[in-house]
Amino acid sequence: MKLKLDFDAAKPIYQQIIDALCRAVARGELKPGDKVPSQRDMAAHLQVNPNTVQRAYRDMERDGLLETARGTGTFVTERPELLKDIKQDLAFREVSGFIEGLRALGYGDDEMLALLESEIRRLQSPKPTRNLPATEEEQEEDEE
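Request: output the structure for the sequence above.
Response:
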C-alpha cells in the first residue's frame, strides 16, 4: 500500500496519517487482516519523524482499527462492525463539512437540499460523447 498525504498545516501530521488509513479502509484499499507497513517504513515513505507514525499507530490501536502481533507486524482489525463505523464516521464528517461550508456562504437548508439534488442528477446523467451538431436523423427524431 502506498499512502499519499497532502500535508495540511492546520491538522497534526499524526492525525492526517490516521485519516488517510481510515479512508483507505473505507474505500477497500486496506481490507480486514491486511498488514500495514512498519512504523519505520511508513515514516520513511512519508518522510516524517518515526515518532509521528508511532503516535498515529498507537492511537489507531487504542481505537481498535489496528492490531499488532508481536514479531509479525501490524494489521487492520478483522472486526467488520468497527470498519463499518469508520466508513460511516468519515461520511458524516464529509457531510458536516459540506453543510458548514454552504452555511458560511449563506445557504439555507432548503437551498442546500436543492443544490445537492441537482448535483446528484447532474452526476448521474450520461456524459455527452460528442459536441458535434445533430445529424438530420437526430433532428427529425427531436421534432417528433
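The first helix runs from residue 13 to 26.
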